[in-house]
Amino acid sequence: MKSGASSIDRDALLREAMALRAGQRIADALNVLARLQALHPRFSRLYQERGHCHVLLGDAEAAIDALGEAVRLNPTLPASWDMLEQLFRMSDDTAQAATAAQHLAMLRQLPSQVVAANSLLADGDLSPAEEIIRDYLHTDGDNVGALRLLARIRQERDAPEEAEALLKSVIERAPDYHAARLDYAMVLLQQRKHLEARQQAEHLLGHDPDSRDYLKQYGAACVGLGDHEPVIDLYERLLVGPSQSGAEVADLRLWRGNALKVAGRQPDAIADYRAALTARPDYGVAWFSLANLKTYRFTDDEIARLRVAEIQPVIQDMDRVYLCFALGKALEDRGDYATSWQYYERSNAMRRAAGRYRPEVAEACAVRLKQVFTAEFFAARAGWGLDDPDPIFILGLPRSGSTLIEQILASHSSVEGTQELTEIGRCAGELCGRDPDCGLPLAPQAFARLTAGDVGSLGERFLANTRVYRRLGRPFFIDKMPNNFWHIGLIQLMFPRATIIDVRREPMACCFSNLKQLFGTTNQEFTYGVDDIARHYRTYLDLMRHWDEVLPGRVLRVQYEDLVEDLEGGVRRLLNRCGLPFEAACLAFHETRRSVRTPSSEQVRQPIGREGLNQWRHYAPWLAPLSDALGDALTSYRD
Questions:
Q1: DSSP label at 529?
Q2: pTM
């Protein structure tokens, strides 16, 4: 519960229900709890209170259902386990009573502060949970269970580096603490340290090779490493294992569908996405995954089901966001642009409200970078870095055509496509600190303190950490992280001979394409508001002009529209910059079989077309604010 106001409202409703129960107004109490559930469906203590109400009504079955949901959401509720034990004994269910008694006994053996903090964490009350557990650690600082709990709280509070350090210390002290090691693998995965995460999962599987949790963690790490083929069979193995809930089946089908999509097996991916929706009809991310194929066309029946799912009052906020983006795409494909825009606008508004992006932070970062990375800065450091031309950096803004450029170059026999690697951004963050909202460098002046030896070591680390993504043994490899346009100065220091390609798209087309795209987790949060995306586009142009001024000729700019008009000329220009001979396979890029993870994965498996150039014009009646916000960028973007 990260919002203070909503937490107060939630707790006030719970207190109201408890007061009504105390006054024997059980029906009124249950009505208040129903309102509370609609607002906070994962609040464990509302179900505990509902259990109390049903006990007073003499309805043991309803009480057991409510209390069971309470402990499913929050296993650290002693009162719920106590009531469950008594109710099961009254029902002569000795096995369930014994299980409840075992949970209760375990909780009573733990320090009360640990139980209380665990319970608060389960309900999202992060600040009081952290306060309690830190106070406890002052008196028992070596308690690995308490340290693990603090790590989980810090992870929930968006401090994954601190959580990682805490969990690393826990497993060093207690190597057989498997729950902590699993948490450690998960926080490594959250930070995209995929190789380390997989190593931890392999360690756990050595202990229990059939653990579903360990297998899922291993699969997620493999996906992060771009190793999709093994996980297709792994998820199938989990699906034919012991019986699962509908929610777990839906997740497994979704994950398998994603792996199939990346591997280029679209019909099989569609079958799995549909199977996920059979298991869970309102599963927003599965509906969105179908839409995100870009080439999928929804039937009348599917659109009707989407509409029904989207208006349900009890679905999770993120499911509604997914459903609205899917409906926007489905109706766009039908030519119903007015209604499509309503869904795109609604989903963007919800997603932006949940995000933390602030355009002024990005603009300030660009100013600081320009102050540090001057022409004099680079002249004083000439000859630094590795004399290694292997990396090819493709950057720019999302939805600019960078996946197309990657696919073209990865069709060459000397170039390997990998994925959007995070090493450069992580390196910049470690050196300069990261803004907590945007993840951009806070103090770029740290770059000025680097020595030639430091820069060489950073380059060696980059090559070592990205080697796991290079499986084909080709001389060159691609890092297609769009956000690296912020880090061209660092790239120049580390790899003065690397190829850097800026893929640029006409601003209205690029910005609109971003507005109708939902990105994963907290990625690209600038794309969910007209003003945010316009200001970000202008900041991007401003910073790229700076790089061109201080590093003249260093970055090859590829205009997406020019490539569409003259594919062969554009391909020859690209290959010439990379120092590569022409190969006809680069023109037939859509025939290249490789894993592609971006939203454009299915589009680059088709021949190049002009249909994407003017799609935004269908929405022109609603995009005047975007045009106004872009201002002179509409004409200066080619400068």
A1: S
A2: 0.82
